[in-house]
Write a structure and sequence with these properties.
One of its GO terms (biological process) is microtubule-based movement. Its main location: cytoplasm. 35% of the residues lie in helices and 23% in strands. With 360 residues, it is of the alpha+beta class. It has a domain of 220 residues: 3-Layer(aba) Sandwich (Kinesin). The two termini are 23 Å apart. The structure holds adenosine-5'-diphosphate and magnesium ion (MG).
Length: 360
Amino acid sequence: VRVRPLTCTETQRGDRRVVHSLGDGTIHVSTARHDATFGFSAVFDAGTSQEAVFEGSGMRQLVELAIDGFSCTVFAFGQTGSGKTYTLMGPLTQSEAQPAAPGLLGLMQRSFACLLEQSRSGSPGLALSASYLEIYNEQVRDLLSPGPPCALPLRWSKTRGFYVENQLSVDFESLEAIADLLLQALNPHPPPLAGSQRRRTSAHALNRHSSRSHALLTIHVRRRAVSGGPQHDTPLPAPMWVPQPSACPSKQGTLCFVDLAGSERVKETGSSGELCVEANNINRSLLALGHCISLLAKPRGKRTHIPYRDSKLTRLLARSLGGSGITLMVACISPSSRCLSETLSTLHYASRARRVTTRP
Ligand code: ADP
Ligand code: MG
């Protein structure tokens, strides 16, 4: 669980802090009418640095497991404005002139750096590629494909489970390349403007994307088999190459980052028309996710059918939630008294999620 600091607006209007971390993974919510304590694997309070979240959440281990061939997922959830995007990507910069300070980079950039470092030193033969999808109004769209967004079919097969047909995946070998990819994905139709102005549009796009749709960035980590046979001083010409008994078999893991759209009360935000349809779709898919998590949290013997098919989101996350994946869930909350009911609901949701076990 991560608690963000009170924002300037919250401080100025005199909101009180009602959430306190007690250490040892416990968190205390207290108001005149509520008094509740919750326990989690880790609690990061308002003063926690991005680096401490990366190290303390198990994110580094998750990266290593992905290299080892596991399907790993991290997702951030919580109400709009609770710090999901900040946790995953860091603060949004408004212009190229002031990029985010390295210390503020989020779990994603830190994981990319960790992966690239491993591919250079620890595990040669790693090939990295990325795909980036969003679920908007119950449609799966490819954020990497050029041109206007079009919906891709979501299918199921016995061997692959749920998968998206025809999704693009792009190889990358450097931090700049993956950063560019993200930026390009978030700003698919750049106006003919230079540098900083283009960025600004993308920052707004990011805001829209992260709050009005669910975004799933998947890094595919392929490790080619490393030969265990005798080493040749001079490489053999390609046609004469004979496979050696491999000491290290080829492996394919994934690392998926999910920035969920925040829950929203249509009544409170006064959304209407298109916005209202969006909000209803967001709420419906979050409800489906909550429902699957509640059922998965029951002991295996008492479980009924898990309705993954209720939404695109739960279909795409089926493996991460109850299958063979390894999943880190980061619940983001605001400490403000005004957010109390959403905060309590996020904490209850997170407590249920904590009881879910997968079989990696
Ligand atoms: P969400 O993605 O959940 O809607 P954001 O990540 O956009 O929320 O965060 C909302 C605001 O709060 C942003 O201005 C962000 O920079 C700020 N914020 C969130 N978490 C933190 C944090 N841990 N430290 C400092 N500022 C934060
Ligand atoms: Mg966001």
